[in-house]
Amino acid sequence: MSNRWFGCVRLAIVTAVAVAVAGVAPSNAAAQSGFVVVVNASNPATSISKGDLSKLFTKKARSWPSGSAAMPVDLAPGNPIRDAFTEKVHGKSTRALSSYWQQQIFSGREVPPPERKSDDEVLDYIRSNAGAVGYVATATRLGAGVKTLAVTD
């Protein structure tokens, strides 16, 4: 069995325990994958489709429906939550998405979203930027200044 398989199993167990302890069920498909999508509390959006979310993170779309600039932020490579997000939202492996960004950079078209090392750093970025969107582990305490965004198919 691979380390990746054990990592996925560990993530599933941690998520199940967190949900059981919190006494609430994940509210959407993203939460069931071990992450929640988070935006600045001032963002009027309440939900987003996986396709539109993918477009924001690949910078194929640059703004929210309200017209404000979107500012996606990723967790650092190697983070299992980033792997889950990439597979669920983009339908690709993190390696495939990395290849996409290498092509974008090499061609001079675009650079990937900034990366943060931890859930807390992602949340700080989102609190500081009205148009920010990111994702954190389901069990992360969000605190003031941010809210979750439901992800639809």
Q: Remind me, CATH topology?
A: D-Maltodextrin-Binding Protein, domain 2
Number of strands: 7
Instruction: Please give the order of strands in the largest beta sheet.
Output: 2-7-1-6-3
Proportion of β residues?
A: 15-25%
The total number of structural domains is 1
In DSSP terms, counting alpha (H) and pi (I) runs of 4 or more, how many helices?
6
CATH homologous superfamily assignment: Periplasmic binding protein-like II
Low-confidence stretches: 1-27
Mean pLDDT: 85
Approximate helicity band: 40-55%
Describe the global form. globular
Distance between the first and last residues' Cα: 31 Å
List keywords for this structure.
153 residues, alpha/beta, 5-stranded mixed β-sheet, two-stranded parallel sheet, 6 helices
Question: Please, could you describe this protein's structure?
Answer:
With 153 residues, the protein is an alpha/beta fold. The protein has one domain: Periplasmic binding protein-like II (D-Maltodextrin-Binding Protein, domain 2, 3-Layer(aba) Sandwich). Helices cover 43% and strands 18% of the residues. The protein is built from six helices and seven strands; from the N terminus they run ααββαββααβαββ. A five-stranded mixed β-sheet has the order 2-7-1-6-3, sandwiched between helices. The longest helix has 20 residues. The protein is globular. The N and C termini lie far apart (31 Å).
